Amino acid sequence: MNQNTIDTTFTFRNLESTDALRDHTADKLTRLNKYLLNPAAAHCIFKVEGPRHVAEITLSVKGGKYIGVGTSTDMYSSVDTAVDKIGKQLSRDKERVKGHKGE
Question: Other CB atoms closer than 10 Å to residue 43's CB: what's the count?
C-alpha cells in the first residue's frame, strides 16, 4: 500500500494556533492520499474575518496546484469544505487522465 505523506504548513491570521485544529486538518488531508501518486505539500491558512471563519488550503503536487477555500461560522466545517473541494478537483483530474488512456 502506497502511504504518501503530505508535508503541511499552517498559518493562523487573527486566530490562535491550536493543536486540535492542526490535527483535524492533517486527518482530513490524509484522505486525499488515494488520489496522490507523488509526495505533496499543503499550505493551510486559517483566517477569521468578523463572523466568517475562512480555511484556505493550497495543495502542491508534481504537475499542479489545487486550491480549496471553505467559509463558514465554524473553522472545522470550513476545513472540511476546503478539503472536499480539493478532493473533487483531484478526482476530476484523475478521471480526465483515465479518459485519455483509452480502454
Answer: 16
Residue 1 has a pLDDT of: 38
Q: Minimal CA–CA distance to 38: which of 65, 2, 86, 83?
A: 2
Give tens-digit pLDDT for 31-88: 998 888 788 999 999 999 999 999 999 999 987 899 999 999 999 999 999 999 999 9
Among residues 37, 6, 35, 28, which one has the least CA distance to residue 93? 35
Interatomic CA distance for residues 73 and 66, integer angstroms: 23
Q: Which structural domains are found in the chain, ordered by start?
A: 6-101 (3.30.160.100)
Cell, residue 25 = 486538518
Task: Give the separation between CA 38 and CA 35, rounded to whole angstroms.
Answer: 9
Cα separation, 84 vs 29, in Å, equals 10
Q: Tell me the three cell numbers of residue 45.
A: 491558512
Q: What pTM value is reported for the model? A: 0.86
